[in-house]
Amino acid sequence: MKKFIKNFKIYKVLTGLVCTALLFGTLLGGLFSASTVIAQTEKPILSLYLLSGYYYMDIIPGEPLKLYLELENAGTQEIFDITLSADVPANWVVEYSPASIDYLGVGQRKSIEAVVLAPSDESRGEYNLVFIAEYQQIRTFSNTVLVVGDIPGLWQWVGLGLGAVMIGGFIFLYRHFNRN
Amino acid sequence: MIERVHEHLIAELASNARTDTIFVLTAIFLNLITLGINSGIASSSGENTQTVVMFTFVALIVVVNFVVEVGLIRGRQMRAKLINGLLRMYKDQGVADYYDPSMLSDYALRYNLFMLAVLFTGLVAVVIPFLLR
Question: Which UniProt keywords apply (chain B) (predicted)?
Fold first, then answer.
């Protein structure tokens, strides 16, 4: 029994120490939140934007259309030798000015003019064009939809012409067969 | 014999009316159906095949409408001839007073209205799809 009372005191002291340690641990844990520290390396981030207003446009087949894009280096490293290309429907042509970018500094932006030419026999519809900027096998892109419409007024005149032919034909028939 | 001739004239008139009704209804129905089809084609993408289909339907409308117009003109002339024959017969029989000759002009007006209806639906069926395109 005496042994148990002696041990009980030891248990009490030990329990007190554990509780104190837990309390301090909780308090210190609140003060210093867990965080991961990553060593930051220099990294280039290339972004290609189509300027607003050029996302959904009409294009007349055979007539060049100018679009404006912006290239931005949002990273922490300079970028060299950026090539520009485009993924376009068959027989469509995109020419950039400048044709390529040799250097783009950190945080630097560069405006690019893209001249799009649709084939003159292109049929009516909506066409998706993807503008691509590439460096060291890393690609960034931006896209737009261009709408090819018919030559304004052509079909309306065709319709009215056919209507006139019908009226003329009717008048001819009416007179001819009434006379006979 | 005169009764037989009278029956024959009446039968011809009935047949004439039936034929003209079929002409008018067929033309208007075809015009409206074609209007729907061509409007659908005109609203879709303008591929060359669809344009050819559209023009084929336009040719169908033009031909059918001209056939119907000719048929109606002939039908009107035939009806006038039949009624004139009937009137002469009634005059010979002394019962012409019971048949008003002004019916001839009424029929002529009715036929003209039928032709106008066919022509106008045909015009709409031809022109509207091109305006939508």
Answer: Membrane, Transmembrane, Transmembrane helix
